[in-house]
Amino acid sequence: MSDYEYGERDQGDMSRHELVPGEGRVSGAMSLFWGLMSFFGVLCFHFPEVLTTRELREVYDVDLLRLLLMVAMYTSLGTGIFSFIRSRGRRRSGALGVGLTIAAFLAGGYRIPAGPVDQVGPGMGVDWMLLDLLKSTVIFIFIEKMWPKYPKQPILRPEWQLDLSYFTVNHLLIGMILIAANGFAPQFFSWAVHDSVQSFVSGLWLPAQVLLLMFCADLVQYWLHRAYHEVSWLWGLHAVHHSAEHLDWLAGSRTHIVQTLLDRALIFVPLYLLGPSPEALNTYVVIVAFQAVLIHSNLSWNFGPLKYLLVTPQFHHWHHSKDKPAIDTNYAAHLPLLDFMFGSYHMPGNHWPKEYGTLNRLPRTLLAQLAYPFRRSSRRDD
After folding, report:
1. Model pTM?
2. Are 115 and 260 in a shared domain?
3. Which of 34, 177, 224, 288 has its CA 20 to 30 A from that of 260?
């Protein structure tokens, strides 16, 4: 569609979402953030063997963690109470934050002794979820405010609470998937493992291993992603991810739990069969976790020639676009090469999308979206 006229994005009036000091919205968001940290932090103290990451357990200072937990809990309570006093009818975030913190206190609070730890167990990685949330919040809010693509988009843009819910639910689900994969992959795919292949891969130069992992995993993701778009009965699952109408670092978390299960389970297969070194696998996980957040962010960076080698925000924003030429394009998660190879590449110069979201608007609550794929109306007809 060479004659298509690309336009500028109009986000409408965002004034009611702006952070105005003294109105209680900032304190409400802070209360919810630290309430989540507090609640899951206490659970990690209760069940470290099940909930925490083996590699991180070995370096924790329990006394320091307990001090940080105390600070988080009282910060959540203080900011939550302030939001009740100053907010004008919008107290949901503060109420959730205070509720989570009270639950944390009832579960033992920051004085709770740490439970028994088996350094061998893999753990669900709830501690990694908390660190990931803290890291992503600090890094991406900073760069999105310094170099925003859409400067008028506020930090607490519409539906941020919904995407925070998805962030929490999907991180916990991924942890369970990893535990299951460690237990079941050897039973189901041991017949396909070749020691010679794994020895060759693990003996490669570290960057070569990481690049091979990215290519193989992305090849699986590409065709699975394309199937979500082109197979009508699968579209309902993926439509949940596309329902986000404002993209930023948190929007990428909006993924139906069934899709999360399918994606992680199938992507784990090539990683298991290749048998990379632990260093290569850990490097791959860090890179793709960062990239998954980055490509959804409200970031204006062009990335120069790098945008032809790696998926960037501009590339992936077009995948979320409602502009007609961009629909069903840019399926790759890591390497645009795959879209070049299979004819689905779309990058019209320096243009960015005019609109985001689905052509048929989805429900706007977590439970309604989780139920959406199982309704007949979820089948794709556009």
Report:
1. 0.90
2. no
3. 34
